[in-house]
Design goal:
Elements: H1 2-29, H2 33-45, H3 49-59, H4 69-82, H5 86-99, H6 106-120, H7 129-144, H8 151-178, H9 182-195, H10 202-218, H11 222-242, H12 249-267
Helix pairs in contact: 2-3, 3-4, 4-5, 5-6, 6-7, 6-8, 7-8, 8-9, 8-10, 9-10, 10-11, 11-12
């Protein structure tokens, strides 16, 4: 009896799915815009965003300038967001915000457009064009909606993206160290420290800048050594000034001992 009921349930579910698919395919080919609108909203409400999208794509142009246009365009954008098509979600949400600036959904749409851009940001080692665009979009949202309930999340996303840019710049400068191109490393770290004074990588940057200066100094010709040793010692002082309990204390002190020993030779 239990097995019989189970088979009956499977047949019922299969029948409903077939009916649903049949209705969907029929509506897709139908020229009745209202029928497509009704089914698209029904599918959207049930979380079937992919199928709803195909219908929204077909009917959206027909509702431009009409009362239902605002509702459809928002659902259209959100369906892209829910299916993780963030390129089109960002575009459609921005389009919604511009088309309906007085809408109750305008603020949310502006936020989700910026968040979609955030979701497109690649890992730090890749080209960061998308990251810069996302920061710009988030900043525009923050400026336009300073009292928004989304402000905390928007600021956190912007902070995360800026940290990603900092990490890329830091790793590039550090790579010069690895390649023994100490002059390029020093220059890159100087630029990094100037451009990102509040970076979470500031301590690391100061240490690796000192490392580059140290390596450059100890491998210099005699005429340039004193000046370069002094530069490395100056960076050590800065590191300890801002990070008195630095995680690099042991390695920095080892370099300082060599630096001081070499500088004493110039004072004699």
């Amino acid at each position: 009896m239990i097995k019989s009921n189970h088979i009956y349930t499977l047949i019922l579910v299969a029948s409903l799915l077939f009916t649903s698919c049949s209705e969907y395919q029929k509506t897709l080919k139908n020229t009745d815009v209202k029928a497509k609108y009704d089914l698209a909203e029904k599918l959207y409400d049930s979380g079937d965003y992919k199928r709803a999208l195909r219908l929204f794509e077909q009917i959206a142009p027909s509702y431009v300038g009409k009362p239902q246009g605002e509702r459809i365009l928002y659902f259209f954008a959100d369906a892209y967001y829910q299916t993780e098509d963030y390129y089109l979600a960002a575009y459609q949400f921005e389009r919604f915000s511009k088309s309906y600036p007085r809408s109750d959904k305008a603020e949310e749409a502006a936020f989700l457009s910026a968040k979609s851009k955030f979701m497109l940001s690649p890992k730090y080692s890749n080209d960061q064009t998308e990251t810069n665009e996302a920061i710009d979009k988030l900043q525009i949202f923050i400026n336009n909606y300073p009292s928004s309930d989304y402000m905390s999340e928007a600021n956190e996303m912007a902070r995360e993206l800026r940290n990603k840019l900092d990490k890329k710049a830091f790793e590039v400068a550090k790579q010069y160290n690895t390649l023994s191109d100490y002059k390029a490393s020093i220059k890159s770290f100087e630029l990094f420290l100037s451009d990102s004074p509040g970076s979470i990588y500031r301590e690391d940057a100061l240490f690796y800048k000192m490392t580059a200066e140290y390596n450059l100094a100890v491998n210099s010709i005699y005429a340039r050594m004193e000046e370069r040793l002094s530069a490395a010692k100056s960076t050590y002082t800065t590191l300890l000034k801002y990070f008195p309990e630095t995680k690099y204390q042991k390695d920095a002190d080892k370099m300082l001992a060599v630096i001081d020993n070499e500088l004493q030779k110039f004072s004699k």
